[in-house]
Write a structure and sequence with these properties.
Blueprint lengths: L7 H22 L8 H14 L3 E2 L11 E5 L2 E3 L14 E10 L2 E10 L5 H18 L8 H13 L4 E2 L5 E3 L6 E5 L16 E4 L2 E3 L5 E3 L6 E3 L5 E3 L2 E4 L6 E2 L6
Antiparallel strand pairs: 1-4, 2-4, 3-12, 4-5, 6-10, 7-8, 7-9, 9-14, 10-13, 11-12, 14-15
Helix pairs in contact: 1-2, 3-4
The structure holds 2-amino-4-trifluoromethylsulfanyl-butyric acid and cobalt (II) ion.
The site of cobalt (II) ion (CO) has 5 residues, from loops.
């Protein structure tokens, strides 16, 4: 396994790819209201990305048919936008999206409430987000990758939540998915030693109930096996000798 170390020049490009992706999210999140179709969100997403002169990196990735993943309620990730799927008050929706700027990828996900949601749903969203921040306490040169994994998983499990194991985070750079794979749960090995200049997409996927997931017949949408809710939170992160730099988080 070889994990790329980005040069100063590459880091500048990754920073910009991250900043632009945030602007895409700003545009999409304003649309999240009851009655809108998930395809409307995708159309807006793609048009913002293209207007920046960038390319949506999910579109046609292994045949994926859209620019954003729209995963509602029990959908964990990779929900496909549809013209006939409308958001309803009380839903939660995870948007996962990325783009390519001058050959460099960014990748980011957030779970949003649709109108007013239950306290339990909000708690799942909040814990999923916090699990990311628990994880990146260990995202520093000299620490080991699986310290991040364990911190994410142990935090989420302390609330009784299920931590998805069938999907993981990943390195990112000139490809959307690079080494290393980044589990969101404690594993026996320490994992690679982190070094300044690594860029990682860290992305806890946390379920209200069982950690087990299934794939729908569309071969993309991953859902919880028990039909309970799931949330997702992802940022592209730069490892430094000090605090990690979150490339997709300056304003949201
Ligand atoms: N953001 C997803 C990930 O982190 C990528 C989805 S791939 C797609 O791995 F094909 F669904 F777009
Ligand atoms: Co990702």
């Amino acid at each position: 396994m070889s994990v790329s170390i980005k040069s100063q020049k590459e880091i500048e490009l990754m920073r910009h790819a991250g900043k632009l992706l945030e602007e895409v999210f700003m545009g999409m999140q304003d649309m999240i209201k009851p009655g809108i179709s998930t395809l409307d969100i995708d159309k807006k997403c793609e048009s913002i990305i293209r207007s920046m002169g960038c390319v949506p990196n999910f579109l046609n990735y292994s045949g994926y048919p859209a620019s954003v993943c729209t995963s509602v309620n029990e959908a964990v990730v990779h929900g496909i936008p549809r013209a006939d799927y409308f958001l309803e008050e009380g839903d939660i929706i995870s948007l996962d999206c990325g783009l390519i700027y001058k050959g460099y990828h960014s990748d980011c996900a957030r779970t949003y409430p649709v109108g007013k949601i239950s306290e339990e749903a909000q708690k799942l969203i909040d814990v999923t987000k916090q699990s990311f921040f628990e994880g990146i306490k260990f995202a520093k040169a000299g620490r080991h990758l699986h310290e991040i994994s364990a911190a994410i998983g142990n935090y989420a499990e302390s609330f009784g939540y299920g931590v998805v194991e069938d999907l993981v985070g990943h390195g990112i750079g000139t490809s959307l998915h690079e080494d290393p794979a980044i589990p969101n749960y404690a594993v026996k090995s320490r994992g690679i030693k982190l070094r300044a200049g690594m860029t990682l997409a860290i992305e806890p996927m946390i379920n209200q109930g069982t950690y087990e997931v299934e794939w729908l017949d569309d071969e993309w949408t991953v859902v919880t096996a028990d039909g309970k809710l799931s949330a997702h939170y992802e940022n592209t992160v730069l490892i430094t000798d000090g605090e990690p730099e979150i490339l997709t988080l300056t304003q949201m």
